Amino acid sequence: MKTLQEKLMYSFKNEKLLINALTHSSYANEARDGISSNERLEFLGDSVLSIVVSEYIYKTFKKLPEGELTKLRASLVCEKSLCQFSRELELGKYLRLGKGEEKGGGRERDSILADAFEAVLAAIYLDGGFENAKKHVMRFITDELKHTDDEVFKDYKTALQEIIQRNPEESVTYILTKESGPDHDKVFEVEVRLNSNTIGRGTGKSKKQAEQSAAKEVLHLMGADI
Hints:
Elements: H1 2-8, H2 15-21, H3 25-31, H4 39-60, H5 66-77, H6 79-89, H7 99-103, H8 110-128, H9 130-146, H10 156-164, E1 172-180, E2 187-194, E3 197-204, H11 207-222
Antiparallel strand pairs: 1-2, 2-3
């Protein structure tokens, strides 16, 4: 646990909290000796994460309306982001899993890793208070914001569609042309085509993000106000 605490940059006064945070329900169910799973900690961690992120983006993005703040928060605390944070900490190595979950690849399962991140956050909160929990979250959130795509704030696909619809005979399609990288860090490349002609390309960490990037490029080439 010492190595993990070094990765967490936090030293627990009560290590039992950390052990509990790493205990999956499959392990607790098989042990049958009163061991608790991390589900209650996950519940608490979800709330701590939400308030930390909400406070930060509220103070940082002073001109964003409520709806866009909600979308931004959702992009930062989604399963994809949380499991990536877990992988950076290598939490999968320290999870206590049941035999079936272990054989089924549970240490790399996105949902389990995301839940573990929230559980560990709650453990830090209970052991060291809100400020230590906040410090832990912000290590990841500030970096994640640097990579947040404009699609969180703007819908370029809809804007392009509205322009194309002025000519009923024209149609736009998005074609996935390439997919590369490991499962937890894929890059997608997309072409946007007007009828059968390629008019733009885009890349992103998801198909949706790549499509938005491609649409944005086309709007820029059209001279549209974006």
